[in-house]
Amino acid sequence: ASKPDAVESPAAQTNWNQAVIERLDPAAMTTRLIPFQLGKLVLEHDVSQDLDLQPGDVITIFAQQDIRLPIKEQTIYLELSGEFVHPGIYSVSAGETLRSVAARAGGLTERAYLYGSTFTRKSTRALEQQQLNEYVDRLEHQIQRNSLALVNASSGSGQQSGSVAGQQVESIDRELIARIRRVRATGRVVLRMNPGSTGLDAVPDMHVEDGDQLVVPFAPETVQVVGAVFNPHAFLYGKHARVGEYLHLAGGPNRAADRRHMFVLRADGSVVGRDMGNTLFEADLSKLRLYPGDAIVVPEKDVRPSGLNQLMLWTQFLSQLSLNAVEFSVLK
Fold it and tell me: Mean pLDDT, consecutive 10-residue segments, the chain of 332 residues?
């Protein structure tokens, strides 16, 4: 079974600030809402909130999810996993930060690799997924327009071969778009820690939201080279390793490689890559220093004018911000 995208609160949390009585006025046949503070009534026994009820009244008690509360009044749960002394789900009090909760978890183990930490947030994931869906919708609409224009042009000129070619390109584009639609954003937030960061002082002193997750792995010992190389593999990390060294170990880019779009996916989720339109970037990239858990990605050249192959590659890695050989094989 797959792990949930983010930890959820154990149950729907009661909104103690507000509840309402829904009352029907039989004369005017109108409904009015009478609010009262549930917390003061139940928890503090405040008689001013003990309102008289009438026949037909309906009492509604809201959950925190129904009406968004100020952050200081929300019940927040944070999941700390991996190399913590006491990993688990922690309730976060008002004013607490990621660092202070990590301290309550006993701090980090001696094998903790903060640079490779994965911090995910539900609100970020929802926004990323919405933006990705909207972008793919626009692409699909553009493909439909281009396909219709190509068919009309072929019909006007009487060229059947152009129409068939257009249908083949559209079929490939639709297949790629279907793959992109299956990409699910994780809501990863890059914490921008240094590769050598250690100890609680390096944990960001940031406020947290309900459902946040921080996973701190142990220090990996490999670097991955994936994509259009002769021997895509994971290789043992060496101190002061450079990109060129690992490309050499992987046999170098093959004939299908798009050298201008090679990039490095850092263990912290950030990406190093830039299209300079010449081979200078390839030379600069070969000198780039690597760190444990980094991945060198060598995409394949587009076999047609459409840029959907490249788009699919970037949406996979920039939205997921995680990498393994199985995931990359899906893109090929």
Answer: 47 71 84 85 86 89 67 78 96 90 96 96 91 84 74 62 59 75 86 93 93 95 93 93 94 90 90 58 78 92 52 48 36 38
Q: Which among 119, 97, 117 is positioned nearest to 108, based on CA atoms?
A: 117
Strands (E), the chain: 14-25, 30-36, 58-63, 76-82, 88-92, 118-120, 188-189, 213-216, 222-227, 233-236, 263-265, 271-272, 295-298
DSSP state letter for 226: E
Dihedral over Cα of 243, 249, 252, 258: its sign: negative
Q: At what angle do helices 160-181 and 122-157 cross, to 10 degrees?
A: 170
Structure tokens given for 47: 């008689």
Please say whether the beta carbons of 216 and 83 come within 8 A: yes
Distance of CA 83 to the CA centre of its chain: 21
315 CB-near residues (< 8 Å, 6+ apart): 132, 180, 183
**Looking at the whole model, is its pTM more than 0.90?**
no
Q: Among all chains, which residue has been given the structure tokens 């200081």?
A: 72
Edge-to-edge strand ranges of the sheet holding 58-63: 30-36, 14-25, 58-63
Amino acid at 169: V
Residue 250: which residues within 8 A CB-CB, separation 6 or more? 225, 229, 230, 231, 232, 233, 235, 296
Supply φ then ψ for residue 176, to 5 degrees. -65, -40
Nearest in space to 254 (alpha carbons), one of 231, 272, 233: 231
The single-letter DSSP state of residue 23 is E
